[in-house]
Amino acid sequence: MNTRNAQFLLLILVWFFPFSSLAQQADDWEKYLERMAALDDMDEETIQRDYELLSELAQHPIDINHATREDLEQLPFLTAQQIEDICAYLYHYAPLKSIGELAMIESIDAEQRQLLSQFVYVGSESGSRRFPSLSNILKYGKNNLLLTAKIPFYQRQGDKDGYAGYAYRHDVRYTFSYGNAVKAGLVGAQDAGEPFFANKNSLGYDHYAFYMVLRNLGNIKTLALGQYRLNFGMGLVMNTDFLLGKQATLQTLNRHRQSLRANASRSAADYLQGAAATIAIHPAIDLTLFASYRPIDATLTTDSSAIATIVTTGYHRTKTELEKKNNSSQTAAGGNLSFNKNGWHLGASAVYTRLDKPLQPNTATLYRRYYAHGNNFWNVSADYAYTSRRLTISGETATGDSHAVATINSLALMLNEQLSMLALQRFYSYHYYALLGRSFSDGGHVQNESGVYVGLDWRPTRQLQLTAYTDYAYAPWARYGISRESHSWDHLLSIAWQGTAFSVDARYRLRRRQHDNADKTALETTNEHRTRLALGYDTPMLSLRTQADASLCGESKGWMVSQRAQVNIGKKTAINAMMAYFHTDDYNSRIFVYERGMTYNFSFPSYFGHGIRYALMVRAALSSSLSMTARIATTNYFDQSTIGTGLQQIDRSSMTDLEMQLRWKF
Q1: Do 65 and 91 meet the contact criterion of CB atoms below 8 Å apart?
Q2: Is the four-CA dihedral 429, 431, 437, 442 of positive or negative sign?
Q3: Using an 8 Å Cβ cutoff, are 299 and 312 in contact?
Q4: Other Cβ atoms within 10 Å of 519 Cβ, number
Q5: pLDDT in tens, 553-565
Q6: What is the pLDDT of residues 23-55, one digit of tens each?
Q7: H or E stretch at 322
Q8: Burial of 639 (0-12, 13-18, 19+ CB in 10 A)
């Protein structure tokens, strides 16, 4: 039997006899993020960052009996009304005896209660919101050490000649926590090909994240030292925190969020470094102040006197990449003043940013004509929100040294317990820019976009949910690959049925996007169709998911079938198995599929060409405080003899990686 026939036989065995594959049932919050990532055009870096933040929240859950509004606002999947309802219930009926009591809150359904249970727990009734003593912190604090490594069983061109380091990726993560009051930690991260204790990495790892966050220090609600993430209003002037996409925006009814949290990510982008604090200056008024200084990567101009582009990939493998490492710096400071009472919110934000070298993008390229430029930048904004039982209104309007305007406004209406609607409008002038701003958009930037989004969420029964949205976006100036004004239109329809054990998930998405023709004399419109049908079976022991995906992007078409089987073996050991067969014409019709990965590592790769993918993961508790996870995965291509290009090229048709992770709680 040849190799290809053996692989097809293995696929059939997993397909028709999934009970023979054992694995751990995925946490509900991972399923939530998987669903959001599958429906939205969230880039890999954003998905990974959001996954790390949710992982950190899951690893350090909140004591619901002593949770503040600020604690609950850390959870991005809650709507503004749900936060109001939880706070009201705690005020009248705390302490809770169990998470099941949340069933008394009408706005939180069974699925959301299950999701919430991943991030909160019922703590001691005698606990206090007051800051603990140092002796208690040292005596009862919890330590968590996590070591992760990825070993490739192949060699890339860069490993032979080009990369300054070895082929292994690894990181270390240490966290100390005491309830909701204290969290401190250190993350050291190394990508494959980066030097370790060499070159510019004389201190070992290529990237370090260090942080300490204290809560409830008298009038200081939150104090962050080291690296942290921050969000003001709806993100037009400041957002280095969550950026959920179109589907999540609908499910959370575009909740207005203020957040200050630790940066516990291995990503070298989108964080602040220094100090920040949220202070209660009145029961209804909070003041958040921050100051930050951090080195950044940049591509410099020929004479090295200015910054051509700010680099956020975080890779430092080659001589060129290492030359860009920390060759510039960014200083930022500012604050937000917010009023919150009886469902009303009013806020004002101001942010100042300075680069040590002037930013000089190549404005000869048309789409870069109005990019941010100069040394000093400032942005100010006003934001508002009103939340009632059925109605949520929110918005933010911003300007800055560009003297242009950006505004986003939304209205969410719950017609009844089963039906909710969301309408969102944004206008981002092509002159406007904010170096630290990120918000809802179709083009990925708070610049050069106007649009209207309308979404509907209907739950006619407890088991059935229908979600639909349409989003029209117009760009009055050129974009990358588009030399003139353009527009796009995005539609989605999703139907999900959840029974006691069985589930069905069906979705269809149509996107119409414009781009330059081959001669760049006119615009062409491409229709992109993507469909998915998934059948699931979930019990406390066993979880199965059979999935079929198809895509049609212009003339390019592709499809994939995949099978996942997951089951717990007792309380100490679990195995996870996955297999997928894919066939696409090219990269345009690539298919995305979720894979269960290591803790803090979200795996949502795309596949194109013709091949098969399979993975196996084992997790075992070696003791009450020590656990180990190992995962091996292979991709085998049938239509090519090499994988990748340039320094990433692998001179073979298959690639296998082994990942290992060791966790110690003490």
Answers
A1: no
A2: positive
A3: no
A4: 6
A5: 999 999 999 999 9
A6: 333 456 777 666 666 555 555 666 666 777 777
A7: helix 319-324
A8: exposed
